[in-house]
Design brief:
With about 170 residues, the protein is an alpha+beta fold. The chain is built from 7 helices and 5 strands. A hairpin with a 4-residue loop joins strand 2 (about 60-65) and strand 3.
Length: about 170
């Protein structure tokens, strides 16, 4: 059981806190307003950035071959290794893929830059990340122009798919 003195001390402590808040409400209110206004000004001054995302599914293509027509099958193609997905992330942001994407939507002309400079900018704004527990990769693009962000995300995904398809065709013909 709680003794009355301890109860009075607990209640007295709460009253003391309330008294401090009551005496300093002007400083507390001013601090809150300054923080709020600072956040509002910084947010309004910052340039807008738009983000667009494309999603591609990545899995090794395996082709089954019937050797000698006896029902025995041998698989060829890319096999899932420990580094397979990491390699695909690197392929998406590789210079060759980004160059094809920039050419596809004519970014050098649109941005009035050299192709090498466009690829450098793309390396800075294109990011890849896996979707947890799946074989999907998200390709995200952040850019100040909404249309450019959308077009770049789609073009990078398409350039990657075309590059990967061509690689698999070359492997099948070899």
């Amino acid at each position: 059981m709680q003794n009355p003195e301890q109860f009075n001390q607990d209640a007295g402590g709460s009253i003391d806190y309330w008294q401090v808040l009551k005496n300093r409400y002007g400083v507390i209110l001013l601090t809150f307003l300054l923080v709020f206004l600072t956040a509002a000004v910084i947010t309004s001054v910052m340039p807008r950035k738009y983000q667009s995302t494309s999603v591609v599914q990545v899995h090794p293509s395996v082709m089954a071959l019937d050797i000698f027509g006896r029902g025995e099958q041998m698989s060829t193609g890319a096999l899932m290794t420990r580094n397979y997905m990491e390699n695909e992330f690197e392929t998406i942001v590789a210079e060759q893929t980004l160059l094809k994407a920039s050419q596809q939507i004519d970014l050098p002309t649109r941005w009035e830059m050299e192709e090498a400079d466009v690829v450098g900018v793309l390396r800075g704004i294109v990011e890849t990340q896996p979707r947890r527990g799946t074989d999907f990769i998200e390709i995200s693009v952040r850019h100040a122009n909404q249309e450019d962000a959308k077009d770049i995300a789609g073009a990078v995904a398409e350039a990657y798919i075309n590059r990967r398809t061509q690689k698999e065709l070359d492997r099948a013909q070899a």
